[in-house]
Amino acid sequence: MQIKKTIEKVPGGLMLIPLLLGALCKTFAPGAGEYLGSFTKGLTSGTVPILAVWFFCMGATISLKATGTVLRKSGNLVIVKTLVAWAATMVATMFLPVEGVQAGLFAGFSALAICVAMDMTNGGLYAALMQQYGSKEEAGAFVLMSVESGPLVSMFILSSAGVASFEPHVFLGAILPFLVGFVLGNLDPDLKEFFGRAVQTLIPFFGFALGNGIDLNVIMTTGLAGILLGVLVIIVTGIPLMLADKYIGGGNGTAGIAASSTAGAAVANPMIIGTMVPELQPAAASATALVATSCLVTAVLVPILTGLWSNYMKRRGDTVPEPQQATPSERVSDFH
Question: Where exactly are the transmembrane stretches of this chain (predicted)?
Answer without folding.
Answer: 49-66, 78-98, 104-129, 141-164, 170-187, 194-212, 218-243, 255-277, 283-306
